[in-house]
Design a protein that fits this description.
Layout: H1 14-22, H2 35-38, E1 45-49, E2 51-57, E3 60-66, E4 75-79, E5 89-97, E6 105-107, E7 119-120, E8 130-137, E9 141-144, E10 149-152, E11 157-162, E12 171-181, E13 184-195
Length: 196
């Protein structure tokens, strides 16, 4: 519902503004110039923390995706959402320079099977000079009430080893997280970031 403002009705009181907001569909952000209600009208936001590393020893280069810490220092989450329904899936996509390809990822012992082993993903938006590797999460979610946030309970932990080739340094990557909630995909991309 969109309110039309005519003539003397332009002087919108806070009470009238709140009444209009109460009828709004709670999807994304509501665009109003009202700081008092803006904070409560934020839409879903995807975030998270995972360590990405690269190390070289002679002609062997090891790349690691490590999300094995505890929430809130590690994990994938979606904030500014109600306690139901829970998300249905999440995807973690890491874009590595094509110079490193092909990369074959394996699960490390502390990695959860709720995250699939990363594979080349051509269905996501591509970045020139990079290859996208995606891992999908289909496990349980936990709700953090004070932060209005769902976070995943399992952690990704993967490794790719390149042997017999020159190490590529520095390694610059992009990372994209996507969470699906109520049939809608929300995502955020970060980068470029240089691995140490």
């Amino acid at each position: 519902m969109v309110d039309q403002i005519h003539g003397d009705d332009r002087a919108m009181t806070r009470r009238r503004l709140m009444r209009g907001v109460a009828w709004a569909v709670p999807t994304l952000a509501v665009s109003v110039a009202a700081p008092a209600v803006a904070a409560s009208q934020l839409g879903p936001e995807v975030g998270g923390s995972t360590q990405f590393q690269s190390s070289c020893s002679g002609t062997t280069q090891t790349l690691t995706i490590n999300g094995t810490g505890s929430y809130p220092s590690q994990g994938t989450w979606i904030s500014n959402v109600p306690s139901a329904p829970a998300p249905t899936s999440a995807t973690l996509t890491a874009y590595y320079p094509t110079d490193l390809a092909p990369l074959t990822w394996t699960r490390l012992g502390t990695g959860s099977p709720a995250w699939t082993v990363p594979v080349v993903d051509t269905s996501v938006a591509q970045i020139s000079g990079y290859t996208a590797y995606s891992s999908t999460y289909s496990g349980a979610w936990t709700y953090d009430t004070p932060n209005r946030r769902f976070y995943n309970a399992a952690r990704p932990h993967f490794q790719a080893v390149r042997s017999g080739r020159t190490c590529v340094t520095p390694v610059t990557i992009y990372v994209q997280r996507q969470v699906t909630l109520s049939g809608q995909a929300y995502s955020v991309r970060r980068g470029p970031s240089t691995l140490s």
